Amino acid sequence: MGDTKGAFSRMRCKICGSRDVEVFLRSYGLRLCRDDFIKFFEKRVERAIGKFKMFTKEDNVLVAVSGGKDSLALLYVLSELGYNVSGYFLDLGIGEFSEKARKAILNFAEKFSIPIKIESLKEAFGYDLLEISKVMRRPPCSFCGIIKRYFMNKAAESYILATGHTLYDEAAVLLSNIIHWRLSYLARQGAVLPQELGFSKKVKPLIFLSERETAIYCFFKGIDYFMESCPLSKGATSRVYKHHLLSIEADMPGSIIRFLKGFYSAKASLNFPDESKKDMVPCRNCGYATTAEGLCAVCRIRQRLENYKH
Ligand code: SF4
Ligand code: ZN
Question: What CA–CA distance (Å, rounded) separates 171 from 233?
Answer without folding.
Answer: 20
